[in-house]
Amino acid sequence: MRLNRPALVLLVTGLLAAGCAVTHGTSRQGATALGKGQRILIMDPDVRLYVLTAGGLLEPQAEWTAAGQGYVATALTEELRAKALGTVRYEAPPDAERRHDHEQLLKLHDVVVGQALGGGQFLPTKKGRLEWSLGEDVQPLGRAQAAEYALFVVLRDSYASAGRHAASVAVAVLSLGTTSLSLGRQVGAASLVDLRTGDIVWMNQLVNQAGDLRTSDSARKAVRSLLGNLPK
Questions:
Q1: Domain assignment present for 145
Q2: Alpha-carbon span 194 to 148, nearest angstrom
């Protein structure tokens, strides 16, 4: 299912285009710990892959994206099962009314997590606590999908074109090595929502200069980095 989810997508894509060369992850989590065997609903991961042109534009690559989508979805299931957690793949309901309700929840999630990861966790009233919620309207989703938590993942990856590599060399030469161009990067965000309360109990943000979602092994590494500190 592909939805128009602007807030979180714009945040992640903005990080992709920013050109920072630092590899890091930042996380926020509440007090909730996951118990062995608890069922996690894996929402369809939103994965997009791009070529970074000589001029710094991001050109979507449909074939790479389709492959990356599959690799990430498989890796998410494998990683959660390795943590002794049950997994459920999201299935859109057949009737239009319930499907619309689910779409609205996804959009609400996007707005809330986009705000939180975009700096909202530092609001004075938060005092560093992870106190964000989608509300009790998520409960029907948990009952329909037979899960206690839902995992949301957005990943973006870009790879330099031949022209971008050449431009990077030229810039380095002309600046005597003091300036360099980004040759692509991997960024992402993940969140875990308690489907009984609507509370967001964990979030993580990934920025990685050396990632690659075009192969299954590299996709597993990215997912492992993104989910490595899930609450236990």
A1: yes
A2: 6
- Residue-wise over 200-228: b if at least 16 C-beta within 10 A, else e? bbbbbbbbbbebbbbebebbbbbbebbbe
Evaluate whether 137 touches 198 at the Cβ level (below 8 Å).
yes
Exposure of 143 by Cβ count < 10 A (0-12 exposed, 13-18 middle, 19+ buried)? exposed
Q: Which residues pair with 207 in a beta bridge?
A: 24, 187
pTM of the model: 0.81
Q: Is beta strand 24-29 parallel, antiparallel or unpaired with respect to 200-208?
A: antiparallel
232 lies in a domain? no
Both tokens assigned to 82? 């390795």
User: Is residue 49 situated within a structural domain?
Assistant: yes
| Residues of the chain where predicted confidence (pLDDT) is lower than 50 | 1-4, 19-25, 120-127
Identify the helix (H) or strand (E) that includes residue 189. Answer: strand 186-194
Give dist(CA 29, CA 153) in Å, integer.
16
Domain range spanning residue 178? 6-121+128-227
The answer as to whether 77 is a domain residue is yes
Number of domains the chain is built from:
1
